[in-house]
Automatic annotation (TrEMBL):
<dbReference type="Pfam" id="PF00202">
    <property type="entry name" value="Aminotran_3"/>
</dbReference>
<keyword id="KW-0808">Transferase</keyword>
<dbReference type="GO" id="GO:0030170">
    <property type="term" value="F:pyridoxal phosphate binding"/>
</dbReference>
<dbReference type="GO" id="GO:0047307">
    <property type="term" value="F:diaminobutyrate-pyruvate transaminase activity"/>
</dbReference>
<dbReference type="GO" id="GO:0019491">
    <property type="term" value="P:ectoine biosynthetic process"/>
</dbReference>
<dbReference type="InterPro" id="IPR012773">
    <property type="entry name" value="Ectoine_EctB"/>
</dbReference>
<comment type="similarity">
    <text>Belongs to the class-III pyridoxal-phosphate-dependent aminotransferase family.</text>
</comment>
<protein>
    <recommendedName>
        <fullName>Diaminobutyrate--2-oxoglutarate transaminase</fullName>
        <ecNumber>2.6.1.76</ecNumber>
    </recommendedName>
</protein>
<dbReference type="InterPro" id="IPR015424">
    <property type="entry name" value="PyrdxlP-dep_Trfase"/>
</dbReference>
<dbReference type="InterPro" id="IPR004637">
    <property type="entry name" value="Dat"/>
</dbReference>
<keyword id="KW-0663">Pyridoxal phosphate</keyword>
<dbReference type="InterPro" id="IPR015421">
    <property type="entry name" value="PyrdxlP-dep_Trfase_major"/>
</dbReference>
<dbReference type="InterPro" id="IPR005814">
    <property type="entry name" value="Aminotrans_3"/>
</dbReference>
<dbReference type="InterPro" id="IPR015422">
    <property type="entry name" value="PyrdxlP-dep_Trfase_small"/>
</dbReference>
<keyword id="KW-0032">Aminotransferase</keyword>
<dbReference type="InterPro" id="IPR049704">
    <property type="entry name" value="Aminotrans_3_PPA_site"/>
</dbReference>
<dbReference type="GO" id="GO:0045303">
    <property type="term" value="F:diaminobutyrate-2-oxoglutarate transaminase activity"/>
</dbReference>
């Protein structure tokens, strides 16, 4: 049956090559294939399934809405589903954090949100250049791709990607170089040749780039530089927002307030495509219809996204993520030390990575884990990082089972590598 994909689906398909199973159902932290085999999911749809697969409260809300013939598609016309989401997001997420943003619903994917944010930043500033960072990933459409660091992905554009400048991300050049100092000096000196950009866009934790984490003081300094120079600061929270790092927004711990925030992936909470751009009110300078999209009013997404906010009515999920994060951190650091792996563990909340000096190790461990019914992906420019993205609601028992599987297979891969090099 898999031949139907090989015969008729484009060669661009990717994840199915790494995880070649025919999946038919999923619940919580587990996926089941057409043979009835169960796989523990440490991938979570690349951060889409933060609350696990088919969470009952979201499923019930969606079924109820569809069963009563709730309207599905409205473009940007008013609907009860949209009203309820806007109201609840304000009350549960924004107001308790002292945040004031207007909401724009672009097309339904993360790259749509990034394109809208970049376009608006250029409009309100009258400037065209955007600063991004090494190893960034912001999407596959041309504007988002222009601020993405991955050379392989950029080459796929087929055209020049212009009006962007890439700077070293926090830690990219080691602990000593003051790369933000360089950026600030260039902005302050009229002889530098650097024009003031319209925007700076970044992920506070670079997920696809290899689980690279920006330090709080680095983020605070970047926020100050952008404020001092009238530069729009855009935080791309598409993969590491919605609780992935513990708090709802990844930038909360640094105490900064971006000018715009892009959200997607786990925003709907159910795997339904949905995206959102949060915009400081003074920057909401769109003319009616100036930026649109056919699927910017997908009401089933509003329904499940509204229900997903139940997870954020109190701090239980945030505390649960902190507890599980400690388990992951201790286990990963422990196994790297016990097994003598040349690797670095890095992460926040429930996004973690093991970055190996030998760039072949991560992929081998991922493949071995898949044979052991654990789905865990790789990240980084050379796939040198084993990247863990379990659901935020995973049980301690399932979390530990997955970590045991990783340790078992890492030990086997390291032993095999040692034998081959001997």
């Amino acid at each position: 049956m898999n031949n139907i994909f090989e015969q008729h689906e484009s060669e661009v398909r990717g994840y199915c090559r790494n995880f070649p199973a025919m999946f038919s159902s999923a619940k919580g932290a587990w996926m089941t294939d057409d043979k009835g085999e169960r796989y523990l999911d440490f991938f979570a749809g690349a951060g889409v399934m933060n609350y696990g697969h088919n969470p009952d409260k979201l499923k019930d809300a969606l079924i109820d809405y569809i069963s009563r013939d709730g309207i599905t598609h409205t473009l940007d016309m008013y609907s009860e589903a949209k009203r309820d989401f806007i109201d609840r997001f304000q009350r549960v997420i924004l107001q308790p954090r002292g945040l004031t943003y207007k909401m724009q619903f672009p097309g339904p994917t993360g790259t749509n949100a990034v394109e809208a944010a970049l376009k608006l930043a250029r409009k309100v500033t009258g400037r065209d250049r955007v600063v991004s960072f090494t190893n960034a990933f912001h999407g596959m459409t041309l504007g988002a791709l222009a601020v993405t660091g991955n050379g392989f992905k950029r080459a796929g554009a087929g055209v020049s990607l212009q009006n962007t400048t890439s700077l070293p991300f926090c830690g990219f050049m080691g602990d000593d170089p003051d790369t933000l100092g360089f950026f600030e000096a260039m902005l302050n000196d009229e002889g530098s040749g650097m024009e003031t950009p319209a925007a700076v866009i970044l992920e506070t934790v670079q997920a696809e780039g290899g689980v690279n984490i920006a330090a709080a003081d680095w983020l605070q300094r970047l926020r100050q530089i952008t404020e001092d120079h009238g530069i729009v600061l855009i935080v791309d929270d598409i993969q590491v927002g919605c609780g992935r790092t513990g708090k709802f927004f990844s930038f909360e711990e640094a105490g900064i307030v971006p000018d715009m925030v892009t959200l997607s992936k786990s925003l709907s909470g159910y795997g339904i495509p949905m995206a959102l751009v949060l915009i400081k009110p003074e920057l909401d300078q769109w003319a009616p219809g100036e930026h649109n999209g056919t699927f910017r009013g997908h009401n089933p997404g509003f329904v499940t996204a509204t229900k997903a906010l139940d997870y954020w009515e109190n701090d239980w999920l945030e505390k649960a993520v902190a507890h599980k994060s400690k388990i992951v951190d201790e286990r990963l650091n422990g196994m790297v030390k016990r097994l003598g792996a040349d690797a670095e563990v890095r992460g926040r909340g429930l996004i973690y990575g093991i970055a190996f000096d030998d760039i072949s190790i991560a992929s081998k461990v991922s493949q071995a884990c898949f044979k052991d019914r654990l789905i865990v992906e790789t990240a980084g420019i050379d796939d040198q990082v084993l990247k863990l993205l379990p659901s935020l609601t995973i049980s301690d028992e399932d979390l530990i089972t997955g970590l045991d599987t990783i340790e078992k297979n890492l030990a086997a891969v390291l032993k095999s590598t040692e034998r081959k090099s001997a």
